[in-house]
Amino acid sequence: MQSDRVLIIGAGPVGLAAAMFLVERGVKVRVLEAEPALCEDMRASTFHPATLDLLAPSGIADALIGQGHRADKWQYLNFETGDRVVFNLGVLEGLTRHPFRLQCEQFRLTRQIVETLAGNDLFEISFNAQVRAVGQDEAGAWVELADGQSLRGAYVVAADGGRSTARKALNLPFEGETYPKTSITVVVDHDFGARFDGVLFVNYVWTADDHFSLMRVRDHWRVGFSPQAGQSVEEAVSAEGVNARLKALFPRDEDYRLVHIGWYSVHRRVIDKFNHGRILFAGDAAHLNSPAGGMGMNSGVHDAHELAVQLAAVLKGGAPDLLDLYDRRRRTIAVEEVQAQSDRNYRRHREKDPAKRVEIWKEFQRLTASDDTMRDYLFRSSMLASLERAAAIN
Ligand SMILES: Cc1cc2nc3c(=O)[nH]c(=O)nc-3n(C[C@H](O)[C@H](O)[C@H](O)COP(=O)(O)OP(=O)(O)OC[C@H]3O[C@@H](n4cnc5c(N)ncnc54)[C@H](O)[C@@H]3O)c2cc1C
């Protein structure tokens, strides 16, 4: 039997944001999550102004602001010389309701959405519900779970992450590249802010021959880096390896208390089309980018919003080609904004050639020389420009 409900694969930030934006538009959803509970994911730590603006009408932005730290400024820092270039998000005042980056873990978003939707008759979430196949026919779309159960809906939203089962089940290409370096994220129970002069809540740091990032989340600091030249990933992510790296940067006798060590391959990939009939792709299932600049989850939430707007209109009798509009808008942004900017950030952060570093630094200084140039740059890096651009695509 066809149903008007939408099945959503994945209770990550994108699946749950899609669920919330659809429910707000009167659409019934059922979210299917393979894990037994919401993941306590240590990946995204930054919410950009554009995303907070989208989440605000649902009450989620204020709830998250209460669970994180406002970063009104962020900086590039030369660790050896102490030189810094500071970007002041205050120049975005008037262009966004949230002229700051919010430092807050992505798992707080998923928890907050489930809490907000709890008890809503349009919302259902099932855990231990691993999808192993998806398909569609004239009447609707379906998924098959690992336990053999079959579920039907009017549409399926595949928000099942970078390794998307739905994408693989449909045999869809995921063109792009895998970057050579593994990204390591370490959550440390230590107040770097107190130890490290001039630290802000978001810091991209060059050392003489390497780089690292230092980010504040609610209760801890996160340090991001890659294995050093000649070092294996295993060595770099061992507790000894991590401690040696931290102590070389921030000397101390005792070991650092490591709350979490995660490591990730970094890709730049995109699916051929975000809509395949009644199966729609969003977030990491549709596009991957380097985490440099913090745009993967943010752009996935933007996908979720656009998807909900167009899909709700289709379910209320609008033309199905509104879903082509979803594809045109969000795929263009994924490639031309998110991937382009994060790729440039990735390369800048890793640049080791002294002459090229001088050029990059001069560029940062040029960008921050006046409020106008800084505003132009931050309007784009805060993803406000990409929302504006997407809305103008017809
Ligand atoms: C080190 C690092 C730092 C990052 N920092 C940032 C940042 O600061 N800002 C930012 O915007 N982005 C950041 N990102 C990217 C961000 O983490 C991802 O873009 C984001 O998690 C994508 O969300 P998603 O919901 O699409 O996928 P996921 O978060 O991967 O969620 C997918 C969900 O689907 C479930 N699932 C998978 N397969 C199935 C199945 N077959 N059946 C049912 N359920 C299934 C999974 O269990 C999971 O819960 C970072 C990434 C990394 C690696």
Task: For this entry, give a set of tags.
FAD/NAD(P)-binding domain; six-stranded mixed sheet; seven-stranded mixed sheet; alpha+beta; binds flavin-adenine dinucleotide; 394 residues
Q: Can you characterise this structure?
A:
The protein is an alpha+beta fold and 394 residues long. It folds into 2 domains: 6-70 and 102-177 and 268-349, FAD/NAD(P)-binding domain, CATH 3.50.50.60; 183-264, no CATH class. The chain is built from 13 helices and 22 strands. The protein has a 7-stranded mixed sheet, sandwiched between helices. A 6-stranded mixed sheet has the order 8-2-1-12-21-20. The relative contact order is 0.17. Bound molecules: flavin-adenine dinucleotide (FAD). Flavin-adenine dinucleotide is lined by residues 9-15, 32-35, 39, 41, 43-46, 106, 130-131, 159-161, 165, 183, 185, 264, 283-285, 291, 294-298, 300. Flavin-adenine dinucleotide binds next to helix 1, strand 14 and helix 9.
